[in-house]
Amino acid sequence: MENRISPESSLWNPWHGCHKLSTGCRHCYVYRGDSKHGKDSSIITKTGQFNLPVRRKKDKTYKIPSGNLVYTCFTSDFLIEEADEWRIEAWKMMRERYDLHFLFITKRIDRLGQCLPPDWGDGYDNVTICCTMENQDRVDYRLPLYKAAPVKHKIIICEPLLSAINFKGELGTWVEQIVVGGESGKEARICNYDWVLDIRRQCIENNISFWFKQTGYRLLKGEREYKIARQFQHTQARKAGINYSGRSNGNNYSD
Fold first, then answer.
1. pLDDT (mean) for 88-102
2. Distances (CA, A) of 188 to 27, 69, 161
3. Hey, where are the domains in the chain?
4. What number is the average pLDDT over the span 30-51?
5. 173-195 burial by CB neighbour count: b if 16+ within 10 A, else e?
6. Partners of 217 in the beta sheet?
7. Which of 11, 15, 220, 241 is the most interior residue, by most CB within 10 Å?
8. Which InterPro entries match (predicted)?
9. Separation between Cα atoms, residue 152 and residue 27, nearest integer Å
10. What is the pLDDT of residues 108-138, one digit of tens each?
11. How many helices (H) and strands (E) does the chain have?
């Protein structure tokens, strides 16, 4: 999953690298980018950005301005096993920077319970944990775990969307937003626009914010398949005009 960073947002990658876990990982953009530089994405390494949230400028103020949304661990999975030792310090930095809002995406929601800090309780107010559900199989497995997880801010990520999805009446006030997007890259699998619209319908029925983030490279609409260049995938999704605001608490993952 890729993202563009606005002036009010920051990117913090405390570690880099991941292991492919489910079908949504097949054409991972991190692996694709690393391969261009001969880098092995399966090796998890702590980065030079590790302590970025608490770094200060010469005037002693924090380098990341207060109020920023911090997209966290977008070149790995925050809950990956190799980072168990490093994560302890990462949680401490999130707690220290309570004036920031941290957001990370995971495919490993089944590890959350063993990865939380002692003072987590029912969640930190300044942390959104998003869970990827790319097809019906992953919805069936991850949705019950995610719904039950002690997290204050939850967003479902259906990107890359690889099948029709039925949330089976399990949506409600516990989820703040659902983000949908097709798969990018020349090897992308098809995203059917009907799947997108049906997820939107389920969001509207439950008054949940819906964001069609990007079309992906191959979008099937009706009987026609469109191949959309990378630079137009976000704008074409926006032009569809199908985003839905739903309930809003200011923490939505958005453009």
1. 98
2. 7, 29, 11
3. 8-128, 159-246
4. 96
5. eebbbbbbbbbbbeebbbbbbeb
6. none
7. 15
8. DUF5131
9. 31
10. 999 999 999 999 999 999 999 999 999 999 9
11. 6, 12
User: Which residues are CB-neighbours of 135 under 8 A, at least 6 positions away?
Assistant: 23, 24, 161, 162, 163, 165
Mean pLDDT for all residues in the chain: 95
Nearest alpha carbon to residue 81 among 59, 103, 106, 63: 106
pLDDT digits (tens, 9 = 90+) for 176-213: 999 999 999 999 999 999 999 999 999 999 999 999 99
DSSP SS3 for 129:
strand
Determine the pLDDT at residue 3.
Answer: 43
Q: How confident is the model at residue 247 (pLDDT cuts 50, 70, 90)?
A: confident
Per DSSP, the residues of 148-186 read HS--SEEEEEE-S--S----TT--STT--EEEEE---ST
| Rounded-to-integer distance, Cα 25 and Cα 80, Å | 14
On whether the CB atoms of residues 255 and 238 are closer than 8 A, the answer is yes
The gap from C-alpha 212 to its chain's centroid, in whole angstroms, comes to: 13
